[in-house]
């Protein structure tokens, strides 16, 4: 007979402690879980504890903590040994987007956990139904897609593969609410997920305008930052349509859809930057150019902004689950 | 010899006092201009003064006023008579998106103002180069596209038509900075403008996912609200790419671009709502369903949110005008 335990007592495993993995560990600790964090890379093993601590302090500055930071850290185990995952009911995989590497990771996880343990990937690029085939007992596998920083964003996309048990998906959906997320549950395995599809539709059009010389990077960023940026945190795109009265849209669709880029190609502009190994603010060169100080300033400013926008969004908790039947 | 006057002493005309026109009048009054507001419709003549006053009070609540509301209102003339525009150096047209109506309006404006007076349209749907042909002395005609509410958003898109004098466009660009906007100046007449192109790329993809049954309206709104909504007010889309390190994008472009909707068609879902004359929160029925109270609640909440996000955005004034040459 299974012992009844509190949700916060559920041990959760995280495999892969890069930027995103560490941030997910912080989110799970803040939710009260004991967290077993596996660092497959030696650099991650060395860096992760400090990074996780500084993330918890960041959350503390935003008044998100009920206890002192140490109380959360006490629940953390960091190890290179998959054996510590043994008692986890959920293990989140956050390693690089390479299928061969993920396959090895899934085998190592499955070798130590119960066949009931839910295994989830944070992938935003590879179909869940494909990854699922690499996991023993595939019905317990699904996608749980977080936004960075995981401990201070409400976004969460839960995606079923074709073999995922709906019961497990619902369990994860409930758990996401316990984590104070605003999850979406996609019962079908949509290639590209929802948020990526929307974002890449913008990226395609924005890069198209820049490559044609119709607008500069700055124009596109300004337009989006000061237009969509003035309402999207509260509304989403369809609520905005309702708010603006709906009637004008079909006429504008008719005029604008035929003008939009339908390209399948990777824009040269992007390919060249990536070929040159530029990493944006992380290397102080990318689409924009930065001094070392400017690059750091952006990173710091975003940490502060994130706290601000998280708190602002919390004041507008409107439910979006009412619609015409 | 022309008298030298202060920028704030420039009289500005606004023709069309619907929701957007009234809001633009409020923005111009707050900038200190004498404003000549023309109400072509009797209902607008009756409703506009109260609406403008309540918008100025709204701005007052957000601490945007240097003087008492009455001091701004004292600078306002509302009339059905185009003759009051005579001394304006700039006239903004904000009437309905019908070319035949705009043509009549331009003739009435041109009949009373100097041939030097800049005439601008707030259109977001009709090419500036086309409208320009309807205006005597077309070199003084351009697009000035505002975001709602005009007195509390920083977005502004200034668009040249093929015949627009660059000198006039630069004058408008300077003036926009005086209005505390973050304007973009598009020297080419891009059909669909920048912000519309980006937004309609999202609308196309979002409606496509909903019509295919891959996601619900709520899923799309949640994903966008809690993902993009957690950074876009600060970053814009290209700055975000730099911030996230650039390297993964080409691979994801390659996977996702071929999946995106390339449709030219107006989605049935939208056409049906519009055929049924639904107007979203304005009629308490649209993509979502509302009770009368809920619809009002959204309107009220957005007025408050707008103040919050305007103030938040003001704390992150990073310039976006640095880039690789």
Automatic annotation (TrEMBL), chains A, B:
**InterPro entries, A to Z:** 3-OHacyl-CoA_DH, 3-OHacyl-CoA_DH_CS, 3-OHacyl-CoA_DH_NAD-bd, 3HC_DH_C, 6-PGluconate_DH-like_C_sf, 6PGD_dom2, NAD(P)-bd_dom_sf
Picking any one GO biological process from the record gives: fatty acid metabolic process
Key word Transferase present in the record?
Answer: no
Does the UniProt entry include the keyword Oxidoreductase?
yes
The residues that cross the membrane are: 12-32
Site described as Important for catalytic activity, located at 145
Q: Which GO terms describe its molecular function?
A: NAD+ binding; oxidoreductase activity, acting on the CH-OH group of donors, NAD or NADP as acceptor
Positions of the 3-hydroxyacyl-CoA dehydrogenase C-terminal domain: 192-290
Q: Which domain of life is it from?
A: Bacteria
| 3-hydroxyacyl-CoA dehydrogenase NAD binding domain: residues covered | 12-189
Gene3D superfamilies with a match to the protein in the record: N-(1-d-carboxylethyl)-l-norvaline Dehydrogenase, domain 2, NAD(P)-binding Rossmann-like Domain
Keywords in alphabetical order: Membrane, Oxidoreductase, Transmembrane, Transmembrane helix
UniProt-listed Pfam families? 3HCDH (PF00725), 3HCDH_N (PF02737)
Q: Which PANTHER family match?
A: 3-HYDROXYACYL-COA DEHYDROGENASE FAMILY PROTEIN, 3-HYDROXYBUTYRYL-COA DEHYDROGENASE
Q: Which family does it belong to?
A: Belongs to the 3-hydroxyacyl-CoA dehydrogenase family.
Q: What name appears for this protein in its UniProt entry?
A: 3-hydroxyacyl-CoA dehydrogenase family protein
């Amino acid at each position: 007979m299974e012992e009844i335990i509190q949700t916060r007592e559920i041990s959760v495993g995280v495999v892969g402690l890069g930027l995103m993995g560490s941030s997910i560990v912080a989110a799970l600790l803040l939710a009260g879980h004991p967290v077993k964090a596996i660092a497959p890379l030696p650099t991650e093993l060395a860096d992760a504890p400090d990074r996780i601590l500084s993330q918890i302090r960041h959350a503390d500055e935003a008044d998100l903590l009920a206890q002192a930071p140490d109380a959360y850290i006490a629940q953390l185990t960091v190890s290179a040994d998959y054996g510590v995952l043994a008692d986890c009911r959920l293990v989140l995989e956050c390693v690089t987007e390479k299928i061969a590497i993920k396959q090895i990771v899934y085998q190592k996880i499955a070798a130590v956990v119960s066949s009931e343990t839910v295994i989830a990937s944070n992938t935003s690029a590879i179909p869940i139904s494909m990854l699922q085939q690499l996991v023993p007992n595939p019905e317990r596998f699904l996608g749980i897609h977080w936004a960075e920083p995981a401990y201070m964003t409400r976004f969460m996309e839960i995606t079923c593969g074709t073999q995922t048990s709906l019961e497990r998906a619902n369990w994860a959906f409930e758990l996401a609410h316990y984590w104070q997320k605003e999850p979406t549950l996609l019962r079908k395995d949509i290639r590209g997920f929802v948020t990526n599809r929307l974002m890449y539709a913008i990226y395609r059009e924005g890069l198209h305008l820049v490559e044609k010389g119709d607008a500069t990077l700055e124009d596109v960023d300004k337009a989006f930052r000061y237009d969509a940026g003035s309402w999207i945190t509260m509304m989403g795109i369809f609520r905005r349509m309702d708010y603006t009265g709906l009637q004008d849209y079909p006429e504008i669709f008719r005029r604008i859809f035929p003008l939009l880029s339908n390209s399948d190609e990777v824009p040269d502009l992007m390919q060249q930057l990536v070929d040159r190994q530029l990493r944006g603010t992380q290397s102080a060169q990318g689409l924009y150019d930065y001094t070392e100080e400017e690059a750091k300033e952006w990173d710091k400013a975003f940490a502060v902004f994130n706290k601000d926008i998280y708190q602002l969004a919390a004041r507008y908790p409107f439910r979006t689950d009412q619609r015409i039947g």
